[in-house]
Amino acid sequence: MKKYNAFENVQEQLKEIKEIIGLEDNIFEQLLKPQKMLEVSFPVKMDNGKIEVFTGYRSQYNDARGPYKGGIRFHKKVNVDEVKALSAWMTWKTAVVNIPLGGGKGGVVVDVKKLSEAELERVARGYIRAIQKIVGHDIDIPAPDIYTDSKIMGWMLDEYEMMAGRHMSGMITGKPLNLGGSKARGFATAQGAAYTLDLAVDKIGLDKNSTVAFNGFGNAGANLAKILFDKGYKIIAVSDSKGSTVNCMGIDIDDLIKHKKTTGSVVDYKGSETLSGQHCMEQDADILIPAALEDYVNEKNVESIKAKLIVELANGPITNHADKILNKKGVLIVPDILANAGGVAVSYLEQVQNAYALYWTEEEVLGRLKEIMETAFEEVWQEKENYQTSMRMGAYALGVKRVAQAMRDRGKS
Ligand code: GLU
């Protein structure tokens, strides 16, 4: 079996949408690769006094619609092709939710679980120093992603502002509230997905008694599980990198969050069975939420999926091959570039607040987020109907056409 490559996945998706929308060759070729890709290596002094050299990347995929935008991932599996793929998905994502930004992504090859807090801070500061020349509020704006959070954004902002000798809070988003962060940014990805899930549930006639399974219980996954639990959904399975916890009667998510805080994982949770990670999707859940990494649903496990609805909280969790099989089976998939766009949408709202130095209440931010997500959902649905295709290709049609038009408007065609 061929080894999964996220960037090949991206290029195949682009070829598919090119045929569907009839995209001209010269734009297609420009969209097949990132405009710029920077690889850096930087030294960090570890607690034992020794220097370790870390590798990082920043891919600037396309800025036709505005400055590059996208998170920074800290993970031991980060690699060039993954970062490129994630930056392409950011490009379509910002276009789908129609915010004036392009797409970019960064990453550092690091296992954060092996670092002390002080080492983590030095890695964060070292990385932003290494890429400082190519970021800025009107060039490229980083944000959190897997294993990065508001605290890390605060260190990066501080390092950048010290180098610049001035305040520039809009150069990064997902910051702590005290440094110009936005209310609701911390759970925006999950909240945005919840708005799309509500609409998708209505479209296929599922009700609130539906059962839900999660793969991934990080920031996005845990927050969405909590939102759905509070709405009355029955969450029957949750998995993380250590395994799954399964309870067909439903899991108390408030309690599971506490359990994860104390033990570091969802496994060994009282009253539930602990099984291998893959078991989660073999459950009879009506709704499946992939909330971890790419390549989660692939040719090995796609046949076991029984869900009627999949909402992609993760980026690229389903391979193209598996996606085709699920579409044939009639599973409705709310694709990543729509479903998880709430995070970057509130990042944009954060930048707007930074520009005006005027801050909104949580209610105001959520009101705007809801409008952005619901508009995007309806527009994607419209494209799906127009082209008689999947929701994913509907979202690609909407996003890629918007990026292509910006390129034509710039005379790049
Ligand atoms: N990392 C998030 C994503 O993949 C958020 C990016 C951002 O806020 O710029 O969409």
Overview of the structural elements:
The chain is 46% helix and 16% strand. It has 413 residues and is of the alpha/beta class. The chain has two domains: 34-171, Leucine Dehydrogenase, chain A, domain 1 (Rossmann fold), CATH 3.40.50.10860; 188-339, NAD(P)-binding Rossmann-like Domain (Rossmann fold, 3-Layer(aba) Sandwich). Helix 1 (6-21) runs parallel beside helix 3 (80-96), helix 1 packs across helix 14 (391-409) and helix 4 crosses helix 5. Glutamic acid is lined by residues 69-71, 143, 145, 173-174, 315, 340, 343-344, 347.
Shape: globular
Task: Decide which structural class fits the backbone.
Answer: alpha/beta
Q: What does the radius of gyration come to?
A: 20 Å
CATH evolutionary superfamily of the largest domain: NAD(P)-binding Rossmann-like Domain
Number of DSSP strands? 13
CATH topology of the largest domain: Rossmann fold
CATH architecture of the largest domain: 3-Layer(aba) Sandwich
- Strand content of the residues, in percent? 15-25%
Largest sheet features: 7 strands, mixed
Please provide a brief summary of the model:
The protein contains 14 helices and 13 strands.
Could you list some keywords that capture this structure?
single chain, 413 residues, alpha/beta, Rossmann fold, 14 helices, 13 strands, 16% strand, globular, binds glutamic acid
Helix-strand layout with pairing:
Blueprint: H1 6-21, H2 25-31, E1 36-45, E2 51-62, E3 68-69, E4 72-75, H3 80-96, E5 103-109, H4 117-131, E6 140-141, H5 150-164, H6 188-204, E7 211-215, H7 219-231, E8 234-240, E9 243-246, H8 253-263, E10 273-275, H9 279-282, E11 287-290, E12 309-311, H10 320-329, E13 332-334, H11 336-339, H12 342-356, H13 362-387, H14 391-409
Helix pairs in contact: 1-3, 1-14, 3-14, 4-5, 6-7, 6-12, 6-13, 12-13, 13-14
Bound molecules: glutamic acid (GLU).
Glutamic acid binds at residues 69-71, 143, 145, 173-174, 315, 340, 343-344, 347.
